[in-house]
């Protein structure tokens, strides 16, 4: 049989058409799926990231209003992750029972309402409570989408799809900073609210609208997608057939809790997310110290690291897909990120070197993140996948919870970010070692369509 055609396999989960399909036909099918799902998920995650990190810009105004110091702000920022972590695994298990459409709709509606309610905060305790509730509302969104994408795209295509989805995080940073600076400056006093209160209201409303749209845009699985033809559904099922054939009976959560692979991958994600989360919540404060005092300028400067990250993560994930190699792409990126944090900690504080170092740290961290999320669906198998992905995300959430608290504490005690950035550099290097020693290349190999194994 010519290499350009693939025999359509018979599976219980899909119709069998018998006739072979070409690589071009498969590309057309997955391109159709991409354009149906990715734009909506992309926009949704942009809004998600803006709503969870706009507190970094609101901080520049509400510190005085709420009587906070840097340590208290760090705790408030982290309370989001506490709620997120506690409810993440149950939310990801729930998505398997009721489907992606209902689950993602529920998450978007609730986090939009919670984000708007942030405008009512009047005390430090109120900040802690509302951030916790925002985390509860948004719990399960990211791992749920990762699981959802794994049910539509095979591993060979998932790297680029994942990177495109994760570019929404970068885009949120690119638009979120200038948008926050503009809203807080231009609309201060609107509706009788302070600028930071208007920010929470205006940026929370889009999530509520997206929750309604989700019901009409998403399908729970390829088999239920009325916008795919029977042949297209069969092509998708065939592409996913090998992964499904690896499933084994058992209880997913119980197996995941006993699976050391979950904790190995979780530590790597812990290291990646600690660096990214620190930059997400503290970048505006660092920029205000070294570069500017007005909100609009801080917002504009904050876009520079995100713009570079957008290019870097796509290039890294594309190269990773073309080589079918994951581990070393992540390892090199983690080392570059560690170097960036270390240089900020030990540099002379000059504006340009600090900006370059922060940009390298962020771009490398995002590159590692985009490739990392191609590993769990392949590294884990059978019923462990859904629970394992949620647990890995939760372990990363622990890093996201601890990092703002520790950075805020260090900044309050020492007046500098240096010690905190040193610790992040060491953590990223430790993540590199665990990745290369704990996740063997052979564990990431899948048989390609030509019959040759992919590389890890």
Automatic annotation (TrEMBL):
TM ranges: 71-91, 103-121, 127-149, 161-184, 196-218, 262-283, 295-316, 328-346, 352-373, 385-407, 419-439
Annotated membrane topology: Multi-pass membrane protein
CC terms in the record's Gene Ontology section: membrane
Subcellular location: Membrane
UniProt entry keywords in alphabetical sequence: Membrane, Transmembrane, Transmembrane helix, Transport
Record region (Disordered): 1-20
Domain Major facilitator superfamily (MFS) profile stretches: 37-443
Gene Ontology terms for molecular function: transmembrane transporter activity
Top-level lineage group: Bacteria
Protein's name according to its UniProt entry: MFS transporter
